[in-house]
Design brief:
The chain is built from 12 helices and 13 strands. The chain is of the alpha+beta class and 427 residues long. It has 3 domains: 112 residues, Alpha-Beta Plaits (2-Layer Sandwich), CATH 3.30.70; 96 residues, Chitinase A, domain 3, CATH 3.10.50; 150 residues, Orthogonal Bundle (Trigger factor, domain 2), CATH 1.10.3120. Strands 7, 8, 9, 10 and 11 form a 5-stranded antiparallel β-sheet that branches. Strand 8 and strand 9 form a beta hairpin. The two termini are 61 Å apart.
Amino acid sequence: MNVRIENQENSKVTLEFTMPKEDFDKALDVAFKKNAKHFKVPGFRNGKVPRNVVEKMYGVEVLYETVIEDTVDDEYRKAIEENNLEVVTKPEMDVKQIGKGKDFIYTVTFHVKPEAKVSKYKGLEVKKADTKVTKKDIDAELETVREKNADIVSVEDRPLENKDISTIDFEGFVDGVAFEGGKGENFELTIGSGQFIPGFEEQLIGMNIGEDREIKVKFPDEYHAENLAGKDATFKVKLISIKAKNLPELDDEFAKDVSEFDTLEEYKKDLQEKIKTRKEAQAKAQKESQAIEQLIANTEVNIPDGMIDDQVHQMLHEFEHNLSYQGLTLDIYCKYINTSLDEFKETLRPQAIKDIKLKLALEFIAKEENVKVEESEIDEKIEELAKQYGSEDANSIKSNESARKYMEEKLKQDKTMEIITNNVVEK
């Protein structure tokens, strides 16, 4: 089999295969013997029909499909391996010439991984994050802990206030007509939580238990239900009960109850260290995120549509998998946000393109910087992850070639990203 490679624009490659007519005729002989038992002709026993009779009755073309099945895939894979081609889209085959006594000529066209060019990856400017811990930060953290440890008490001697937990019955109307999903009974709503449409919760403040009130609001223009978006609505509300949070006092006893420390001051110092660690982690993530955005902007590459389609499919699969943990399907989710599956896929394309550009940019930089990953580093990372996830089977993972390849690529990406972030300019 002779193979000719034609490199085209936008990382498209066409392989032209030529099987000499002598080899093609032999392949037809093999195809006939392989399928002889399937040809049925009156007057002949199964498997004993002469080839000339088969070709006259069925046509010689009946053998072509077998030759193609037995030849094309193997020859294609062999050519890919021999020429070190990294295919990223589904190959398309086209028969150029086929016939008894002729050379069998066909082409296989596909896209290989495109090469990116990054104009700048060192000295990227990012905004410096503030990691200083203020008294306000510590007070906010303390308030969160107080909220979590608050006692919930019933209130009967005063009207509803901000931050109270109300229990309400409600029904919504647009143009005097009740709308679907606008009714609830014994619904628990914390005032100020922002759980309802803007303006709803504020108008409940001041209500007494047992009181009925009409609440007038306007649905946001971007509301997920198109039939309600931008519409004026009236809700008839009845306040059933009021509960309030009884927050614990900020003292040494509080510190003992919620932490391992004996005094409030010790607890505050510990919170300060934890907030500092959290802010530094956030600053690192922010620095990396800003650097990635600039890196993508500085990357030039022509990405084949098929490669983007594959990335979208992968993102969709991961999203669907995560939905399953919430008891949802992709179809139900699309109905909920009032969109079709095709429209939802389109919303994923911009991020898919960014993900591909980043991956190709990191590969370009890794080559420029000669980033290497040692076998010992792969083993160490596998052992670390196995321990982290409670797996005792690190050795079997180490011997898995696919797992090692994935880990090598991940470590190389991490090392390359470290080069970029270590060279950013914070302003």
